């Protein structure tokens, strides 16, 4: 009998916070499940619940002694299982170390290892343990394409129950066969990899929106009909008063008129009662209809066409201090160019961007330059800049923040936004102004999957020049027409496959 991990009507919430799980049903069996959803939805919390680290009624393991291992996001120090794996000499350990290009002597240099190297050690140690359940929280963070391919190779051989939290669309599609979306305490699942699940859910959402529109239309019609019916009823009541009729008129015509008016009044009363009932039903249907979230609308980027044909240039060697990243280049970015800078970590992509910006032919205010990381002073400066904006302009920025999936009230009340919130604020502040050129260095760092998709749609629709550094291959393929790949001190230009 295959092992399984179930949630049956499971609910969980931290004190004074909205529910992470609200009567959730979930059945996990051998194979990889992708767990997706916006930042703050509780994906990491759900992994902790599945691992038994947080108490939650409704969690059932079959068998009871399932061995569960959760990969933590923290990389500051090697955990005991990583140290044990590095010291192991069995064939499986050595094979995993080779497949992921790991050097056991690197344990002494852990603080100096790149985040990608440390992540590979974590994943390899988890595979070496061969648990029944493997829970991975963003294992693809900080990995370049080569490292991600090696990670995929190592994980694809796992035969137990695997749950992968990731914003990497290519990794999700390549590894998982089912997808669970978590948001607002609710989950929905599809026996499909992420891209196919998203397409199915988009169709479902479109039907829900159509039902909502139909419910609104029915509610409007019912309200109009009720109003008209009440007006007719009031007219009948006025007629019944027989104002203007001689009270001494007792002939048959007056009696017949009274009877006709009484009959009309009764008919209008019945019509009004039916209209009241129809309006109440229409309102119940509208109230019960599923509404789309107020967050996450389309992101609109304002564009100011550049007058110059060439916006960025780089000629000669590209240097990182005294180290030559590229021996000699003659590069230019035109006002209609969309360039994706790719390559392994450490090859000098950010250095090349800095060299291009040094050769800018347009003023800084015509460009949005988003660095790879935002430190605390930079985040504080973003908040101060937001607060200093005039009310109308600040409102436009906050609309963009909401479009990227952050509640404006939550952002304004925060003394220190999360890395994801700060990155979305930086994007919103930049995109709210007219720009001729966007220079984005790993813009999807700390962004959840919905925000990545909305950013991609905005960049696809934006007509200006773009320089994009990213390991998100799906984003690069979707929004760029030229790829510059850095490797071994050389730069290769090609047209990316838009698949």
Query: Mind telling me the CATH class of the largest domain?
Result: Alpha Beta
Low-confidence stretches: none
| Helix share, percent | 40-55%
- What assembly state would you assign to the polypeptide chains in this entry? single chain
Physical arrangement of strands within the biggest beta sheet? 5-6-7-3-8-9
Total strands = 17
State the main characteristics:
6-stranded mixed sheet, Rossmann fold, 17 strands, 499 residues
Question: Summarize this, please?
Answer:
By secondary structure, the chain is of the alpha/beta class. It is built from 15 helices and 17 strands. The strands form four sheets. Strands 5-6-7-3-8-9 form a six-stranded mixed sheet, sandwiched between helices. The chain has a six-stranded mixed sheet with strand order 13-14-15-12-16-17, sandwiched between helices. A three-stranded antiparallel sheet has the order 2-1-4, covered by helices on one side.
Question: What is the fold's blueprint, element by element?
Answer:
Elements: E1 4-12, E2 21-28, E3 31-36, H1 43-50, E4 59-62, E5 68-71, H2 80-87, H3 91-99, H4 115-129, E6 133-137, H5 145-156, E7 161-165, H6 169-175, E8 178-183, E9 186-190, H7 194-240, H8 252-288, E10 310-320, E11 323-334, E12 338-342, H9 349-358, E13 367-370, H10 376-388, H11 391-403, H12 408-413, H13 419-431, E14 437-441, H14 449-461, E15 465-469, H15 473-479, E16 482-487, E17 490-494
Parallel strand pairs: 3-7, 3-8, 5-6, 6-7, 12-15, 12-16, 13-14, 14-15
Antiparallel strand pairs: 1-2, 1-4, 8-9, 10-11, 16-17
Helix pairs in contact: 2-4, 3-4, 4-5, 7-8, 10-13, 11-13
């Amino acid at each position: 009998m295959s092992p399984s991990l179930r949630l049956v009507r499971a609910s969980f919430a931290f004190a004074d916070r909205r529910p992470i799980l609200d009567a959730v049903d979930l059945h996990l069996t051998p194979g990889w499940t992708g767990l997706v959803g916006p930042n703050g939805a509780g994906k990491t919390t759900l992994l902790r619940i599945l691992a038994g680290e947080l108490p939650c009624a409704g969690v059932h393991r079959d068998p009871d002694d399932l061995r569960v291992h959760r990969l933590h996001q923290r990389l500051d120090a090697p955990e005991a299982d990583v140290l044990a794996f590095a010291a192991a000499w069995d064939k499986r350990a050595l094979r995993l170390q080779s497949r992921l290009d790991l050097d056991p002597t690197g344990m002494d240099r852990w603080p100096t290892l790149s985040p990608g190297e440390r992540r590979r050690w974590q994943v390899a140690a988890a595979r070496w343990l061969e648990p029944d359940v493997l829970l991975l929280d963003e294992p693809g963070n900080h990995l370049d394409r080569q490292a991600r391919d090696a990670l995929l190779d190592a994980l694809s051989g796992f035969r137990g129950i695997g749950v992968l939290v990731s914003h990497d669309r290519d990794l999700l599609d390549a590894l998982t066969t089912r997808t669970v979306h978590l948001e607002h305490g609710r989950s929905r699942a599809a026996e499909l990899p992420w891209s196919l699940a998203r397409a199915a859910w988009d169709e479902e959402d479109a039907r829900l929106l159509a039902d909502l529109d139909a419910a609104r239309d029915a509610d409007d019609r019912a309200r109009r009909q009720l109003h008209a019916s009440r007006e007719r009823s009031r007219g009948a009541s006025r007629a019944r008063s027989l104002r203007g009729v001689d009270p001494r008129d007792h002939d048959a015509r007056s009696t017949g008129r009274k009877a006709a008016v009484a009959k009309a009044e009764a008919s209008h009363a019945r019509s009004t009662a039916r209209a009241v009932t129809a309006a109440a039903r229409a309102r119940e249907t509208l109230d019960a209809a599923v509404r789309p979230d107020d967050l996450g609308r389309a992101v609109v980027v304002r564009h100011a066409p550049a007058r110059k044909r060439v916006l960025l240039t780089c000629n000669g060697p590209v240097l990182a201090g005294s180290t030559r990243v590229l021996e000699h280049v003659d590069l230019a970015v035109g006002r209609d160019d969309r360039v994706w800078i790719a390559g392994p970590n450490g090859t000098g992509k950010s250095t090349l961007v800095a060299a291009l910006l040094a050769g800018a032919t347009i003023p800084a205010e015509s460009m949005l330059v988003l660095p790879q990381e935002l430190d605390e002073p930079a985040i504080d400066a973003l908040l101060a800049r937001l607060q200093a904006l005039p009310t109308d302009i600040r409102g436009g920025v906050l609309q963009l923040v909401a479009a990227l999936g952050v509640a404006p009230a939550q952002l304004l009340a925060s003394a220190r936004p999360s890395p994801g919130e700060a990155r979305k604020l930086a994007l919103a502040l930049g995109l709210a102004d007219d720009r001729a050129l966007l220079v984005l260095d790993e813009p999807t760092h700390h962004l959840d999957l919905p925000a990545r998709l909305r950013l991609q749609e905005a960049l696809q629709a934006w007509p200006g020049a773009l320089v994009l550094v990213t390991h998100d291959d799906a984003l690069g393929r979707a929004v760029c027409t030229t790829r510059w790949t850095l490797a071994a001190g050389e730069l290769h230009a090609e047209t990316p496959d838009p698949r």
